[in-house]
Write a structure and sequence with these properties.
With 588 residues, this protein is α+β, with helices and mostly antiparallel strands. It has 19 helices and 21 strands. Helices cover 38% and strands 21% of the residues. A hairpin with a 4-residue loop joins strand 13 and strand 14. Helix 11 crosses helix 12. It is globular, with a radius of gyration of 25 Å. Bound molecules: adenosine monophosphate.
């Protein structure tokens, strides 16, 4: 398949943010795509080479890209740097430079998607001392044969700056339309994606075997399953209202969610955002196979830091010490953990997702042995308000955050925030009833003690409909000096010259960041705002929502990706809830 077809599509897609138009462009592209190439196209559209959980990084630095442009065009580095600085987009700079190539080259062959993909793949595999030279060689060989438009997209993919703003749902809509003629089949595709986390594979299957093939899609060991999420409730009463009079309550431990894939001694661990995190937990990898009494199994657990002497659970932040590449052994002994199992998703070659919560819990207890390191998360069956209060008391005393409440007869809904699980936190840390997880989109330089750090951050919610990040507040309180240093370390490589198009904000920050880091804040109230863009026009025309007196809680949510942040829907619900409470109070 000619790469020019893909480059033309990218060009059209970059010109719009409207979901329907994007879907239409995708359908046109998929119609021209041979089955053998479709998975590659789907990854490339998302600026990837393989699904995220494989952890493949292109890792090409701007300098190398510029040198490659220089090599293939014969134009001096200085000129290229100048062009790049003008608009901050290396792809665009390349296309301008290559149009005025001084070195005449003859386009010897049309470049194909396959060739570009394979070259990029080779680049991602390069390591060691000569790798920079090799990268340059590969890149300039592609650029030599590319048109200026093609070159600009090749470079954007290489540098991770291709941002078409296409949500996974849009890709699935387009796949359903192209290969089954019916957009409603998206739901079937969604299931396949939820159990595989691999959109390329889903695309290939529907292209070759149609909807029938998609229906047969099964869990594959060592491919992560997208996790089930919980709705929040504010009180015991609300939980009972929603769940009736018999349900399960589990401790809500404050650790890191881990999905464990195990076959004999082979163990792979995935985070909540489906990143392979095996290297942070060598203790789990070593110990867990002893506890398993099945040929293969997929489990879910909360890994929690503990005080070894008292057995008490410690806060999530303690696990941050394990986020390091070297000397992990030392962190393992200094910051011990326990693995607290709460679900089973697969066992002896079969899916457990369709089983009820009760059946799954029994199965988990049957196939996994407990010991000091591996435990079942404490669980009780609740039948009235007193029981839920007692269980909450015990959980808080043990150092947990609150409770997770689960319907007994419901299946596991991969990839969705269903209403079959509820979270109930004890401490109403703020008047809103819960904290919010927000994406850091911008920063303001600090003064006084905070000079050299970002003293204040601009935060955003996630707008699911538009797939954008909408500003909701600035936050400058609640940070310790250590927090500020840590946040600076994380954010400084994420600074961008131009604001990412997925950010919606009227505020001008000193610096803009890639929307990646998620932090937790509390606030006193949600108010209507003429400046902030969260839930714009949803409550009142020309007004968004903003947080009043926001404060950082000390929690950097490294386990969350930006799309996991609190959504505008959630903020609207909190805003309405707060109005209801105020109304009731007035009546009393
Ligand atoms: P939140 O991040 O506040 O939406 O809460 C959901 C998170 O709570 C999950 O992603 C898990 O990491 C964590 N968690 C702690 N205990 C449990 C439990 N018993 N069941 C499910 N998730 C739990």
């Amino acid at each position: 398949m000619k790469f020019s077809i893909l480059a033309d599509s990218f060009h059209k897609m970059e010109g719009t943010r409207k979901r329907l138009e994007l879907t239409q462009f995708l359908v046109e592209l998929f119609e021209k795509t041979p089955n053998e190439v479709i998975s590659k196209i789907v990854y490339l559209i998302q600026g990837k080479l393989r699904p995220d959980f494989e952890g493949i990084e292109l890792g090409v630095a701007e300098k190398i890209a510029m040198r490659s442009i220089s090599k293939s065009s014969g134009i001096a580095m200085k000129k290229i740097e100048e062009e790049y600085r003008k608009n901050g987009d290396i792809g665009h700079a390349a296309s301008i430079i290559l149009e005025q190539k001084t070195q005449m080259t003859f386009l010897v062959e049309d470049i194909t998607v396959e060739r570009v993909y394979e070259t990029l793949f080779r680049i991602s595999n390069l390591e060691g001392s000569r790798s920079q030279d090799m990268k340059m060689k590969y890149i300039s060989s592609l650029l030599n044969d590319a048109t200026s438009l093609e070159a600009s997209y090749i470079l954007k993919i290489l540098l991770g700056s291709l941002r078409l703003g296409i949500a996974e749902n849009t890709v699935m809509d387009a796949l359903a339309i192209t290969f089954s003629g019916d957009k409603n089949n998206r739901k079937i595709l969604q299931h396949a994606y939820n159990v595989s986390s691999d959109l390329g594979k889903v695309a290939e299957t529907i292209a070759t075997d149609g909807i029938k093939g998609i229906k047969k899609f099964e869990i594959v060991l060592f491919n992560p399953i997208r996790p089930m999420l919980a709705d929040r409730v504010k009180s015991e009463e609300e939980a009972i209202e929603k769940f009736g009079n018999e349900f399960a309550a589990e401790y809500k431990l404050d650790g890191e969610r881990v999905q464990l894939h195990i076959k004999g001694k082979e163990v792979v661990l995935f985070s909540r955002s489906l990143e392979n995190i095996s290297s942070y937990y060598p203790d789990i990898i070593e110990k867990i196979p002893e506890n398993i009494q099945a040929e293969n199994i997929i489990l879910e657990a909360e890994a929690v830091a503990i005080n070894e002497n008292t057995g008490e659970f410690l806060p999530f932040q303690e696990l941050m010490h394990r986020r390091r590449k070297y000397k992990i052994e030392k962190a393992v002994t200094q910051y011990p953990i326990t693995v607290n199992l709460f679900d089973i998703l697969y066992c002896n070659g079969k899916s457990c997702l369709e089983l009820s919560y009760k059946e799954r819990r029994e199965k988990m207890e049957k196939y996994v042995k407990e010991d000091n390191f591996t435990k079942y998360i404490p669980m009780g069956i609740i039948t009235n308000k007193n029981e839920i209060e007692d269980f909450m008391e015990n959980s808080i005393n043990a150092g947990s955050e609150g409770l997770m409440l689960k319907m007994l007869d419901k299946s596991y809904q991969a990839g969705s925030r269903g209403s079959h699980w509820l979270k109930l936190k004890r401490e109403y840390q703020n008047d809103l009833g819960d904290s919010l997880d927000l994406v850091v989109i911008g920063g303001f330089f600090g003064k006084g003690r905070r000079t050299g750090n970002y003293g204040t951050l601009l935060l955003a919610t996630y707008d699911e409909d538009e797939d954008t990040f909408t500003s909701i507040c600035k936050v400058g309180t609640g940070f310790s000096d250590e927090n500020l240093d840590q946040i600076y370390q994380i954010l400084s490589p994420q600074v961008t010259i131009k604001k990412n198009p997925r950010i919606t904000s009227e505020m001008e920050a000193d610096v803009w960041f890639e929307p990646e880091l998620v932090i937790e804040v509390v606030a006193s109230e949600i108010t209507l705002s003429p400046i902030h863009k969260a839930a714009m026009d949803k409550i009142r025309t020309d007004a968004g929502l903003a947080l009043r007196f926001p404060k950082f809680t000390g929690k950097i949510r490294i386990e969350k990706i930006a799309e996991d942040a609190s959504t505008n829907e959630e903020v609207i619900a909190l805003y309405k809830g707060q109005k209801k409470v105020a109304h009731e109070k007035n009546l009393i």
